[in-house]
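Handoff note, outgoing to incoming analyst
You'll be picking up this chain. Sequence as last confirmed:
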Amino acid sequence: MLKSIAVMTSGGDSPGMNAAARAVVRTALYEGVTVWGINNGYHGLLEEDMFEMQSKDVGDIIQRGGTFLGTARCKRWTTPEGRMQGYKNLVDRGIQGLVVIGGDGSLRGAQLLSQETGIPIVGLPGTIDNDVWGSDYTIGCNTAANTIIDAINKLRDTASAHRRVVVLEVMGRNSGWLAMVSGISGGAEYILVPEEEFDLDAICAEMKESYEKGKRYILVVVAEGAGSGKEIGDQIAQKTGIDTRVSVLGHIQRGGSPSVIDRVKASQLGEQAALAIISGLSDIVFGFHRNNVVAINLHDAVTNKKVLNPEYIHLAKVLA
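Most recent structure output, in case you need it:
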């Protein structure tokens, strides 16, 4: 049984990271285990920016977006020398295991650290893209989807008033989950995702026909990985002659107070991660499958690509 562990957040921030870190800390303290917080992800680990945590250090944070521990990209961590330095910094403080909350890249860095040094590692999937293999859910995805829906509801009003086509670009470089679920629930006519090819000429022809029949507005949701919202909007305007406007939601999708779902599920995952690492388990990621917490092999999670649910793709076409 480990007596001292550390927790960190890494990569892009996502709502619910604070809830997960809070659960890790308070579970560890409840079990009589020392727990350290690492500021600013792998960068902070290399800079020895860490502190021993008490229960009060995670008070008043569950309702906050972002991450109170901070996060940063770290090129040095991509080198074996950088990871070995990080390991040394952990050992120097008597830290025996590490919980990493982050997305695909962060979990891949954690897997390499475990592989090279043998230190126990447990990961939690913290990314709004919901693209970690083996889990139906990632921390922050629910809040981000609700943020997009709020934008869609507002854009619909002005689009209808002016009979416009509105193109909304959302995050999702390699995964179209956010675009797909928000587009379906927001009633978008077209949802463009990197997993599915689309014919813009055919789409534009359908738009012209719809407007000729009296359509008041059209909403197009585009995942950034499927193409530039601005370029797609420009082409739609050129090919259809319909007044077209583009909105790029950007980093607003990452922020905001986490939803109830993200607070509760992140807390569940944080508790399980703490209990697992304390028990000496390693090389696992905790996620959800059919609403139950499951343990996923860390190597499998970072080497396999999550597939967008084909039922979503079919449903989007039926409801368009």
